Amino acid sequence: SQKIEQNSEALNIQEGKTATLTCNYTNYSPAYLQWYRQDPGRGPVFLLLIRENEKEKRKERLKVTFDTTLKQSLFHITASQPADSATYLCAPLNQAGTALIFGKGTTLSVSS
Amino acid sequence: DGGITQSPKYLFRKEGQNVTLSCEQNLNHDAMYWYRQDPGQGLRLIYYSQIVNDFQKGDIAEGYSVSREKKESFPLTVTSAQKNPTAFYLCASSSSGTGDTNTGELFFGEGSRLTVL
Asked: Count of CB atoms within 10 A of residue A82's CB?
């Protein structure tokens, strides 16, 4: 069955450092991969989409990579701030653009 | 303001009862989705609809039913057949496709938390 793993449930870093989150998938060949941010008790908010033919995508302090050989996506937040503290979810999409399942998420805590 | 509205925010149900969760969007999106989120687990797709009067099962459709009679509305009924219905339910919508100018972004509601007593 399709499986998505996000490297750790919790990641604690200091303000100003780069946070790196990992999303690995098995038994799946997604055409796209999305990343979302979720705050406690709220719905997720879209951050970035990367396509299978794109190696890297950037948006302000965010950078996403997509390695279809390793079946892995990395999500980086540079110059992290306490306001970046949240849970980050990855969602591989099939060819039709549907996310059947999201990863469990990694909860990032940035301390000042 | 454009957005997606779920109600109720909190709902308590006795075992054996059906309940219906409401989801309305005014974003003029074709596609709508229902996900379930359990503690320590990722979101799992229950049902989705790409167009009015049509919907497809997701990974965990058993014990749930939906309808899509209007573009703006996609209600979810949790039936008594759903063995473990206590969860956080999220409705989402998106415009169709993931072409060059479309990210397939899902717009989520604030969620409905269902507890079975």
From this structure: 10
d(CA B35, CA B27): 19
Kindly report, residue by residue over A42-53, the tens digit of the pLDDT: 999 999 999 988
Chosen for mutation from B7, B21, B34, B43 (greatest number of chain A CBs closer than 10 Å) is: B43
User: Cα–Cα distance between B60 and B44 in angstroms, integer?
Assistant: 7
Specify whether the CB–CB gap between B4 and B92 falls below 8 A: yes
CB-hemisphere CA count at 13 Å for A63?
A: 12
- pLDDT interval class at B101 (50, 70, 90): low
Q: Which of residues 45-74 of B touch A (CB under 8 A)?
A: 45, 48, 58-59
* H or E element at residue A4: strand A3-6
The pair of structure tokens assigned to B105 is 């972004």
B75 touches chain A (CB under 8 A): no
